[in-house]
Design brief:
- The complex is a heterodimer of chains A (284) and B (368).
- The termini of chain A are far apart.
- Chain A contains eleven helices and ten strands.
- Chain A is an alpha/beta fold.
- In chain A, the strands form two sheets. Chain A has a six-stranded mixed sheet. In chain A, strands 2-1-4-5 form a four-stranded antiparallel sheet, covered by helices on one side.
- Chain B is of the alpha/beta class and 368 residues long.
- Chain B is 71% helix and 7% strand.
- Chain B contains twelve helices and five strands.
- In chain B, strands 1, 2, 3, 4 and 5 form a five-stranded mixed sheet that branches.
- In chain B, helix 1 links the parallel strand 2 and strand 3.
- In chain B, helix 7 packs antiparallel against helix 9 and helix 7 packs antiparallel against helix 12.
- Chain B is elongated, with a radius of gyration of 35 Å.
- The chains are: A alpha/beta (284), B alpha/beta (368).
- Chains A and B meet through helix 1, helix 5 and helix 7 of A and helix 2 and helix 3 of B.
Chain lengths: 284, 368
């Protein structure tokens, strides 16, 4: 290997050291977050911690700013005020381009509609982040990585060369998940992964997320409306209401709180159905 | 020193024994895969000294195990979990579309393209038929034509195109007159430049230039508008509400193009004649009054009728091609671009083919 290449490798490695996910007890720390659009206040001094290695479900009624919260964390939306630390780093204050790239390669984001690049095949979609961050990886390895990621998310063997328009809704979600996992992130953001899937597909997707999180040791930030998903996958649940996180905890802990919205949410007809379904599943 | 992925090797009984060190992760991989590939038969892979491993690292291990029949020892529970997840056979998972030999691929492309052109032509004819049927239904049901929608198009298809069509054909008139004059001067027959400009403009040039311009401006706009509406499922929404897209979208556009083509064509011809006249006045000293008198003698009325017969046909062709291509958009945004391009190309090509047919037809019925 030439010296120049060696230097480049050393540089890349040093950069990769800048963020060390395994050292942090909390993957994400949010303090006093305020988001405001015009006169509308979405978040008013919101606090939230996401522990490393957990699957945190984020629930809340429509318009309570679940997606805005996610967009603030990943830097797509600059908060009006407040502090968001991801692995000890605040995205707004990172002036160094390199450092923000390092942070970005620690997380994978799956958008609600999949957000696959429509002119690229599924395999090429998965390779986009790999090429961006590791341009010197050889094509054979890239192809192998794409193939096993396709397999990992449970897509059929012939899905790799297909274009997003040729896929069903469930397959688009799986392909989106495969792309978000391309860089083996430590932190995974999922925005309503089961929305628009049939109950069987949604249950399988929940299983897949749980399985991948266990295998790869992921921390997952999961926005969902789906009560079944909460029961099936989440370690803890954060409830967004009244512009804040009003409660965080396991589902039994949340059920013990008196808050009317939480009671309505989990003890409404759908909540009870999901809970009993979950118990039946566990008994089996 | 950062713990980059590396390995120590020692020669054992069945081949090389590999002991990985550092972190076997995507970020620390470096040239490890290449170095590993260069080794001979590998007997064992020792993972006990690894600090961390991710799916890419696990894949490298899995790959080596498969290639060399090596054994894995000392895997931590986390590493074992990853290895198990990747253990199943992935060879059937494809990444690229099948590649064929270049010659076969070329033949295949030529074949596909030829069939594509034929299908496109059939498609346009079929679409025209469907449109006529929609018009029939609309008239039979005594629903009124959507005049409002048609008239709105007059502005974009017709009025807005006037400056550019006028300027273009004016310049073409000058160019034709100038080139004609150079040739005719050799025989001392410069005055016949008036014949050249007058007849060519009315019969062919004015209308042809207009058709090309309208295909480029409006045919493409039809295709892109309708294509985008297809993508956003507006067309489907319309169908479910009970509004026929043929009636609401296609017919007004085709009608506007059909009605406007004769008007624009006539306007273009006049502009070309004016251009030619300007050149004759300045370059050949033929005063405008004489020029107009000569034109009246030279241009037979049949030239004018020929233009007026061709113009609506070209209008229908441009409108139908644009709308047809728009309706063919499926799947993604790239398709809108492709279809818009082929709308323009097909419209111009068909206009010129039809123009040639008209020329043969008119001369055979004696409209010389």
């Amino acid at each position: 290997m030439s010296d120049a290449l060696d230097d480049q490798v050393a540089e890349e490695l040093a950069a990769a050291d800048a963020v060390r996910p395994e050292e942090f007890e909390h993957a994400i720390c949010i303090r006093g977050l305020v988001n405001q659009f015009g006169d509308t206040i979405i978040h008013d001094h919101l606090d939230l911690d996401v522990r490393s290695g957990e699957i945190l479900g984020v629930v809340g009624g429509s318009g309570t700013g679940k997606s805005v919260l996610m967009r603030s964390i990943i830097g797509l939306q600059t908060p009006t005020s407040g502090e968001i630390e991801v692995y000890g780093k605040t995205l707004d204050t990172i002036s160094d381009e390199e450092e923000s790239r390092d942070l970005r390669r620690r997380w994978g984001v799956m958008f609600q509609g999949g957000a696959l690049f429509s002119t690229l095949s599924v395999a090429e979609n998965i390779q986009v982040p790999l090429r961006e961050f590791y341009p010197r990886t050889d094509q054979k390895l890239l192809d192998e990585i794409a193939a096993y990621k396709v397999a990992m998310v449970g897509l059929p063997p012939d899905a790799g060369p297909k274009y997003p328009a040729e896929l069903s809704g469930g397959m688009v979600k799986r392909a989106g998940l495969a792309r978000s996992l391309a860089l083996d992130p430590a932190l995974l953001f999922l925005d309503e992964p089961t929305a628009g899937l049939d109950p069987i597909g949604a249950a399988k997707f929940d299983e897949l997320i749980r399985e991948l999180a266990d295998t790869m040791g992921l921390t997952v930030f999961l926005i969902t409306h789906d009560l079944d998903s909460l029961y099936a996958t989440c370690d803890r649940v954060a409830v967004l209401a009244e512009k804040k996180v009003i409660a965080v905890g396991t589902i039994p802990e949340l059920l013990a709180t008196e808050h009317p919205w939480i009671q309505d949410y989990f003890n409404g007809p759908r909540g009870r159905a999901a809970a009993s379904g979950n118990q039946t599943a566990k008994r089996r | 020193m950062v713990a980059r992925a590396d390995f120590e090797q020692s020669e054992g009984a069945g081949g090389t024994d590999i002991r990985f060190t550092g972190r076997l992760t995507l970020a620390r991989l470096g040239d490890l895969p290449t170095r590993l590939d260069a080794l001979g038969p590998i007997a064992t892979l020792d993972l006990s000294a690894l600090e961390r491993i991710d799916t890419v690292g696990a894949w490298i291990v899995t790959r080596t195990v498969k290639e060399h029949g090596a054994k894995v020892i000392g895997a931590s529970p986390e590493a074992q979990r990853l290895l198990d997840a990747l253990a199943s056979d992935k060879s059937e998972y494809r990444v690229h579309r099948d590649r064929r030999p270049p010659l076969t691929r070329m033949l295949e492309q030529v074949g596909t393209a030829s069939v594509g052109v034929w299908n496109e032509l059939l498609g346009i004819v079929g679409f025209f038929g469907a449109m006529i049927m929609a018009l029939g239904t609309q008239l039979r049901a005594r629903r009124r034509l959507r005049w409002h929608a048609i008239v709105t198009r007059f502005q974009t298809v017709g009025l807005d195109a006037l400056p550019i069509i006028g300027l273009m054909t004016f310049l073409i008139g000058i160019v034709v007159a100038q080139q004609g004059a150079v040739q005719l001067r050799q025989f001392g027959l410069e005055v016949f430049t008036v014949n050249l400009v007058g007849r060519a403009s009315i019969r062919e040039l004015g209308l042809l230039m207009t058709a090309i311009m309208v295909a480029g401006r409006s045919g493409s706009a039809f295709a892109a508008q309708i294509g985008t509406m297809k993508l956003t499922e507006e067309i489907d929404a319309m169908r479910t509400i009970g509004v026929s897209p043929m009636e609401a979208i296609v017919l007004p556009r085709v009608a506007a193009a059909t009605i406007l083509m004769p008007l624009l064509g006539f306007y273009a011809s006049i502009c070309a004649i004016i251009g030619g006249g300007v050149f004759c006045w300045i370059g050949l000293d033929i005063p405008p009054v004489t020029y107009v008198q000569l034109l009246r003698d030279i241009i037979p009325m049949t030239d004018f009728w020929a233009m007026l017969i061709k113009a609506p046909v070209f209008g229908i062709l441009i409108g139908v091609t644009g709308c047809y291509e728009g309706m063919q958009v499926r799947q993604n945004a790239e398709e809108v671009g492709k279809r818009t391009t082929s709308a323009v190309v097909a419209a111009i090509f068909l206009v010129i083919v039809l123009d040639a047919m008209f020329a043969v037809f008119f001369s055979s019925i004696g409209w010389n």
